[in-house]
Amino acid sequence: MSMSDTAYSSERRGRLSRHVSFLAYDNFRYLKIALAAVTGAIVLYVAVPPYGSRYGGGWAGYTLGTVGALLILWLTWFGYRKRTYDPEHKYVQPHAAAAAAHQAEDPSRLARRLSAHVYLGLALLVIATLHTGFHFGWNIHTLAYALMCVVIASGVYGVVAYARYPRQMTENRQNLTLAQMQAQIVALDAELRRRVMPMDDAMATIIRDSLDNTPIGGSMWRQLSGHYPGCGTFQAIARLHALPDAGPNAIDENWRLLRTKLDEKALLVSRLRRDIRFKALMDVWLYLHVPLTFALLAALIAHIVSVFYL
Amino acid sequence: MEVDVAFLSRRGTALMRRSQRASGERVRIGRGTDNEVPLNDIHVGLRAAALVLHEGVLTIDRLDTSPLEVNGSLVETAPLRPGDEIRLGPYRIEILPPPEGCDGAIQIELVQPAGDAAERPGGGTGIGLARSGPSKRFYAWTGFLIITVVCLAVPIAVFSSGMLHSWHKDTPNAKLPSLVGLSWNPGSFSNAHRFFAADCATCHQGAFAGVADATCLSCHANVGAHSPHGVALAAVGDKLASLRCADCHTEHRGIEGSVISKASFCLDCHKDLKEAAPATGMEDVGGFPNGHPQFRATLVADAAQNKTARVQLGGSPPAIDRPGLKFEHKVHMDTANYPLLVQAGRAVKGCADCHVAEPSGQGFQPITYKNQCQSCHQLTFDAVALPWQDARVPHGDDVGVIASVWNYYAGRALQDGSSSSPADTQTQVSAKTAAALRVVFDEKRGCALCHYSTGDKGAWDTDKILADALPPKGNPARVVASVKLPVRFLPNAVFDHASHRGQTCESCHTVAAAVSNGTERLMVPNLDNCTQCHGTENASFHAQSTCITCHVFHHSEFGLMRTSATGTVQ
Questions:
Q1: In this structure, what DSSP letter does residue B223 have?
Q2: Residue B440 in 3-state DSSP?
Q3: CB atoms B208 and A293 under 8 Å
Q4: Helices and strands (DSSP H and E) totals, chain A
Q5: In CATH, B2-113 is 2.60.200.20
Q6: What is the rounded CA–CA span in Å between residue A213 and residue A209?
Q7: Is the pTM of this model over 0.90?
Q8: Does the beta-carbon distance from B262 to A299 stay under 8 Å?
Q9: Contacts of B159 in chain A (CB under 8 A)
Q10: Shortest Cα distance from B57 to chain A (angstroms)?
C-alpha cells in the first residue's frame, strides 16, 4: 500500500467519523435538550388546557407558539452563520464585524451548531404541531405550518443525504477528482479528434456525435437523474457496431482504436455523471430548505400579525 | 487554376493572417491532408468541397455530404464573387478579389472553435445545481415577497381601506373581501353567524382591537344578566363586569360554534362565592359531581304569605313542600281508596294521567283543578237539577261558592212558587244554603278534603263561616286559604325532561308517603340520583357534564347583561 493510499483512508475515516459526530455531538447533548423540550411541550399541552378548545390560544398555546416562532428564527440564523463560516478563508468578508465573527468560528462550533440545528429543528415539529391544536384549514396559518413541515422534511432528507452519499461518491470517484475526470475526458476527446481526422466521413460523423453531444451536468433534472437519453458517446458506440463492415470479421485497426477510446470515454462520462448526481442529491434539498424557510418567515409574520390584527 | 488562400486567426485582439497559394485542376477543401486546402476539423468532410473555374467563373462544388452554405443558403454548387461568404463546418470562408496572377482568393477563419466543448465537458457551465437555474436566493425572496404581499399586505390594505362593510340585510354579501379574509380565517364559522361570514367588518372593526361587546350587542341586545342587579358582588362583580362577550363566546371554531364550557371557567368565581360575595346566598361549588352542593329545592314555605324557601334535598328535616293543599300521591295511586270512581273508569293509572308535558317536553303544564281534579272531584251539592245546570259550586272563587249555593236555593224557591213572605223565604233559603254549605265545605268530599281554610292553622270553622256569610251581605270574607303550586322545584337548573324521556318517571321519582296531615316529602330527585349517570366534563364512563349542561349563564329574569355600547353592567 502506497503512502497516498494510507493518507487517503485516514482522511476518509476522519470524514466519516465527523458525520457521526455532528449527530452524536457531545454525547447527544442536543438530542437530550430536544427531547426535554418536546416532553415539556407535551406536558404543557396536556396539563394546561385552555378554557375553550385548543386553538393555539391560552397561555399554554401562546407559549408553544412563541417558543416555536423563536426556534424558527434561531434555526434560520444558523443558516446565516453557516454561510459566514469559512474555514479556508476563501471568501473576503466585506465587514470587519463579519470577519471577526468568522474568525471566531471553528469546526467544532460548526458541528455543535449543526447538531443543535438538526435536533431542535425536529423538536420544532412537535412544538408547532401542538401549537396548532390539530386544527388545519386552507389559510395562512396552516400554510405557515405546512411550509415549516416541508422545510423540516427537506432538512431530514439533508441529514440522510449527508450520511449516505459522500461514501458512495468516494467509491465512485476511484481516487479521481472532478477536474481529473474532466481532464481525462478532454484528453480522450482530443485523441478521438486527432485519430479520426484522416478516417472516412462515416467514422468522423460518429465520433463527431460523441464530441459534440455528450452533455455533462445541465438541468436540475438531468443532474439529479444522471440520465441522458441520446447521449452522443453511447450512440457513437452503438453506431460503430452498426456499421456495415463492423463485427468480428471486421478487424479494422481504426475501428478497434475508436471503439476502445469510446469505451474509455463512456466509462468516465458515466462516472462523472454519477459524481454530479451524488453532488446534486446532496445539494437539492437546499433548494427547498432555504427558499421555503424564507416563505415560512413571511407566512409566520402574516400568521402572527393576522391573529392579533383582527 | 491558382487560388490565394489566407488563414485568419485571432488571439484576443491580435489578428494573424497567413496566406499561401493553392494550385491545381481544382482546389479541394476538406479534412484530409491530401486536400489543396486542408481544414483540420472533424466537422468538415474528408473531401468536402472544391473550387473550380467554370467557364472562367470561380465556382464551388459540394463533394460529399458536408453541408455547404453560400451566403446563407445551402447549395450543391454556386458561382462565387468577391464578398460572398461560405460556411463549411466551423469555418467561414470569404471570397476576396483575386490578386494579380490568381484565379481567386479566399480568406478562412475558424469561427466556431471546437475547443470550448472539448476543453471541459459540459461546457463548464452545467455542473452543480447552482448553475442549473435561478439561485436559491431568487426563489427565497420570490416566495417571501409573494406571501408577504398576498397574505399580509393585501388583507391589511383591504381591511384598512374601508372596502369592507358590515353586513346589512339590504346589501349583497361581500365577495372580494371574503376572498381576502379567506387567507386569514382561522376556522369555519358557526352556523348561526354564517350569513354574514363574508363581511369581516361586521365583527372586526379596528386593527388590533379585538371584537368589542358593542358589536355583539348590535344584534344580541336582550342577553340576560348573570346575577340580579343590586346584589353586592364585591371583587367578583368587577371580574364579571370585565368579561368580554368573546371571552366565553368564540368564533371561527367550526359549524357547531363554541361557547366555552369548561367547568373551571365558572369555578374561578363559584369555588368561594359564599365567602367572596355572601350577598348572593350561593353555596361554594368545587366541581361536579364531587364538590357540587346538594340540590336545594325552592319550596313553598307559606302559601298564604306567598313565601318560598330553598331547602336542601335528602337532608334533615326532609324537604316538604307546603303549597296550601292537602294532597297525597300515594292515595291517588292506590285505587282501593276510591272503588266507585274506579268502576266509573276513573282510576289513576300513571303519572301522565295528571302530569301533562309542555309542548317542548322540557317541563310539565301547571296542575289546575279544571284539568287535573275536576273529572273526579266534582263540586255538586244537590241532586236536583235546575233547568240550566247541575247544582255545582264554582272552583277558584270561594266567595262565589256561598253566593252560588244561596242563589241556587233562592232560585228553587222562586221556581217552587212559594207563597210565604219574602222574610220567610229568605230564612228558608238561608237554612237550606247553610245545610248545603256544610256538605260543600266538609272534609269527606268538599273543599276541606283538599283545601285549608282561613281559620287558625287552616282549620275549617264552618259555624263561624256560615254565621258571617248568611244571610248574604256585602264584602264577604275569604274562606279558602291561598294555594301556590310551583311549576319547577329547581328553578336554577335547566332540567330537560324531553332529553330523558326514554326513562320511566319512577326511575327518578318515587312516590312518597305522607309525613303529616296531607303533606308528603318532595319527590324531586337529589344530586345522587343525577350522578348515577352524569360525571365530570371529561368522564369516560359517565355522561360528560359541565356547569352549563344544567345551568345557564344568562338569566333574562335578572334583566340585561350589558345595556350600553361600553359594556357596563346596569
A1: P
A2: helix
A3: no
A4: 12, 0
A5: yes
A6: 5
A7: no
A8: no
A9: 309-310
A10: 29
